[in-house]
Amino acid sequence: MANETRPAEEIQLVVFSLGREEFAVEVTQVREIMRMEEITRMPKSPHFVEGIINLRGQIIAVIDLAKRLNLEAAERGSESRIIVVEADDVKVGMIVDSVSEVLRVSREAVEPSPTLASDVSAAYLQGVVKQDNRLIILLDLTKVLSLDEMASLGF
Amino acid sequence: MDISQYKELFINEAQEHLEALNQAMVDLERDPENPDVLTEIFRSAHTLKGMSATMGFDQLTELSHEMENVLDGLRSGDIEVNTDIVDLLFGCFDMLASIVASIAEESGEVLDTGPLIEALRGVYMGGRGGVAEKAGKAKKRGAKKRAQEKPAPEKPSGGGVEEEPAPDGVAVEEVPAEKATSEGEGPVPEEPPGAQGEEEAPEEMAPMANEEAGELRNLRLRVTLDKDCVLKSVRVFMIFKKLSQLGRVVDSSPSVEDLEDEKFDRSFEVLLSSAEEAGEVRRALMTIAEVQEVQALPLEGGLEVEAESMAEEAPEEAVSERSRPEVERAPVAPVRTQSVRVNISRLDNLMNLIGELVINRTRLQEISSSYNIPELKEALAHTARLTADLQDEVMKTRMVPVEHIFNRFPRMVRDLAKSRGKEVDFVIEGRDIELDRTILDEISDPLMHMLRNAVDHGIDSPEEREARGKPRRGSIKLAARRDRNYVSIEVQDDGQGVDAEKVFALAVERGFISPDEARSLSEEDALRFLAMPGFSTAEEVSGVSGRGVGLDVVKNKVESLGGMLIMQSVKGEGTTFALKLPLTLAIIQALLVKVSNEIYAIPLGVVMETAVISSYEIKYVSGQEVIFLRDETLPLVRLERCLGLGGGDGQGTFPVVVVETAPRSVAIAVDELMGQQKIVITSLDRFLKGIRGFGGATILGTGEVALILDIPTLLS
After folding, report:
1. Domain count, chain B
2. What range does the domain containing B371 cover?
3. If you count Cβ atoms within 10 Å of the first and of the last residue's Cβ in chain A, which end, N or C, has fewer?
4. Yes or no, beta carbons of B687 and A89 under 8 Å apart
């Protein structure tokens, strides 16, 4: 992947919007981006688990990312997407308001201190990227999908 | 012995022979000069005839007899292989299959074999020097008629049979063509009675030992079966039936009971009291298929005494005697048939029980985790290992080679290509790869579908192909290969491939995507559209790709088996569809129920009964809803509430599922019963494992996901 002409530290981010903010995950963790589809409810699961879907023969959980991050999400519409990500051998679909682009940034552009004002708890953040006038929040998927975290939520 | 008990075996075997015939005929059409293929066809047809005759199915016998005459003509070169004859023979195979099917179903349907028999007679009469050139069947042939050949008489020596080439025809390859035809009778030790057409072969029999003139004599015979004989008990039955027509069976070694239980290797001895001569008896027995040799033995000493030792010696002797002239077989200890035929439903039952056992084991482990008893844990760990091993072994018994279903495809592809005016080379790879029987049965239709698509839409007409600079004949490959814990089955064609642009255009037209989105999609996405329900139908996209026909059905089927459909296409070069399938399945029988518009599966193992109750039947015992069913008070659990889905105040009448749980049974109220079916358990991943009450999930035939309820944990 590291092309000779580019700095080796370059990373690619899948940028998506959720509520009023822009978020990103590293493209290496993204398996697929899907349109919304029928989701089978998963009873007795935490409030942010939307349900389960059949991803080409594999059954995976889908979470409502806005609920997971305690954000207000836009209405589900034709722009809504499920981003299937994989972290720590767990494959999960995350519902987002819309997916905008794949962005190339150098790793240095990711500022590690997530102290900036965001509605999202710092625990889920890996860093922020400032690009032109945008502020893109890079999620720490390991934390977002953390099972310990879920266990402490009471199941 | 009752013949009806052999009917099922007969049908199985007849179907196998028909499959082999179809397969070999496709090969023959491709390679008409190959004597091995013809020998193979002849052998199968002959065996079929013999079997049918023994079982008394006259229609089958008659048709296969006429067919054999034509085959004999083909083998001798009197009749030339051409498309008409191949079609005619295929027609016969289909008719035979229909007759076998009607026997199987006991439908009593009488099929008209007249026209086929007429046509067959027309062909072989014509072939044999135009004795009676039948009207419509006058064929241009004879140009290549090999002059000096005629059906060779059997070698008039008793040893002739032993020297015949083995059924696999090792010797046939080495002898020149004409000789092969005369000696290629190998698998059919004598000129079969039916095959004697115009020219009667001399019916000379080997003079056997012990021929005395007289009324009744005792004959001691050793009967040896073919090494590939699969249904030895049937052969034994046939042999004894034949013997009882010829005389009285005084004794046998091993005993009749043991013989019927297949407790022998390949040969056994009988003592027959008969008025017939040994040669006559031998001849009669040799007409039974898969009887390799019948030897008359000297009558020395008491049979009683000798029978004992014979039981052990006979098989070994028979093998080593026979193996000497053949380089291939070393004189080693006899290879015993170590297999039995088991009805698939038994294996299914076994598998269901193990499925339940595994679920129960999980339940036990859960219970044990709440009581900290080391001994219990240890015992359970051991049980877990054992059940896992048991499951493994049972899974293995269910594995069958893919050729079980692959073998019927060459014929199908050939017929289809012919009817579509296309030229197709069909190649099969990996016939011996094994797959779970259930998976194999389930993918048979999808594969047929994909092959049909490949012929219909993948491969262009010969003219179009030539215009594009490709060889006239298209190629379709069906390949199975093992890939760690998966088996991948691919259908590959070298046709036009899928035109992504056209697919996107159609997707926009159908409102699946906006034109903007279409631009951002990859070729891979285009293929995914094809497998979307309702994306396309045959006539609407003919000329575009046509690949969408039923692909959604294929995809759902594969996914419900725990596998996946992978598609690849290069425009102008061809398309590959691969089914990635698990080797084995975890299948259980389940009752599907609906609540709050979601489907849930309840393992049938815990279900005792179902009933419909009215809300006025509900009583209250210390605040808990209960119902009375057959003098029993059952707590009523509303599934919606139990799952926290809200609602669950169902009034009026509704179904309940009575499930068995400790300490007592419970009636579970649902909105609707959807019926019972086999489902494949897909375990939930780590992310969802912590949620209690579910034993996994399953993908239904519609592609929908249904959760499998783990009733005990759900109710605890």
Report:
1. 5
2. 344-398
3. N
4. no
